[in-house]
Each structure stands twice: as C-alpha cells, then as structure tokens.
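In this supplementary section we document a worked example of the pipeline. Step one takes a protein sequence of length 215 as its only input; no multiple sequence alignment statistics are reported here. Step two produces a three-dimensional model, which step three serialises into structure tokens for compact storage. The input and output of this example are shown verbatim.
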Amino acid sequence: MQTIDVSVLITCYQKEEYLSECIDSVLRQTKQPKEIIVVHDKCDNPMHHDKVDSIFLKENYGVAHARDVAFKFSTGKLILFLDGDDVLSPDYLEKMTLVVSEGADIVYPDLFLWCGDTSRLSVTPERITKAYVKKFEKVVIPVTSLMHRRVYTALDGFRKMDVLEDLDFFVRAILKGFTFRKAQTLLWYRRYAGTRNSIGLDKRREVLQNVIKQL
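The serialised model returned by step three reads:
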C-alpha cells in the first residue's frame, strides 16, 4: 500500500474508550500516512497502541499545547490533526492529498455529526472566505483538515484559549491569505447527547466576538 508524506497527529484527553476506533480508522486508509502520533494530555487511564508513536504528558495543558507537542515531534510535509474520538472515512487521506496536489493550502471534508438518533450529515461550503466567516461568524470546517506544514508554522500553531481555538486558527489562516478547498470525503465527528460546553455562553460570545473582530 502506498505511503504518503502525511503526519496524523491525534490528541486525546479522557477519550480512551474511543481512541482505538479512531486509530483503526487511520490504519484502514487506502493510502497510509508516514506516521501517526498520539499525545495523551494527562488522561487518567492512558494506553499505548501498536503502530503509533505515543507521547504521555504529565500535566493537562489543554488541546492547543498537546497539538503543538505532536507537531514538534512530527516530520511529515503535510499534517492532519485528529481528535481522539473521531473517525476517518477509508478514502480520507487519499481524497485530501489529491486536492492539496492541485494547489490548496488547507483542505477540509464534509461532516457526519455522529450522535445516536440525532446523527446527521453536515455539508460544508465549497469555499471558505473572509466574507463567509464575517457573515455567519463561524468556520464550519473541522480541525481535521489537511494542511501544509508551513501553514502551522506561519501561524505559530493554535493559541491557548478557553474555547474556539480552531475558529481562531482558521480566521488567522484566512488573514494570512492561505487558500481553502473542499475534498469529497467524510469525517465522522462524534457528538455527545445531553452535554454542553463547560464555558458559559456569555464568555463564549465574548471570545467569538474577539475572534471575528480580527476580520
């Protein structure tokens, strides 16, 4: 099977029950990544998995730091961040790298919002632009987007925030002039029934306004 120059960087905090399924979805890819790195952000019961490189943090520093640790240990020309409870369709990397080869800086998928009886398909827009984000005040693409290594370096990674690190990252990518394109594949994005983000709505709105204000 063909190996491609991609580092898959998985971050995990208290999601060990889903992590094997996540890793298996990477190992089943029609084109295999160069490496898979898992960062356990001080999980209570971290486990080492075969065929991946595991990093165990002694403190819970948060997802922005965990992603940065994974990036610094990676070597791929292209990188793909993945949360430890999500699953890739088998053709994910193949379809993503095809679009990158056509000149895109960042490539994103459609989403299957995975939550029992309320599961549904979420079709992302064909283009992500500054005007779109300003109008809807969101970037409807997941962090599990394939990007060139130089994108992460130019943005100096994810900023440590209470919430919306992904939105802030992609807004800064737009402002830097990086191009976004969609690939015809699917990320199975796990959601949890009956749960809410621990941060208050007022604080979330404040962070959102500050992120969008950059535009």
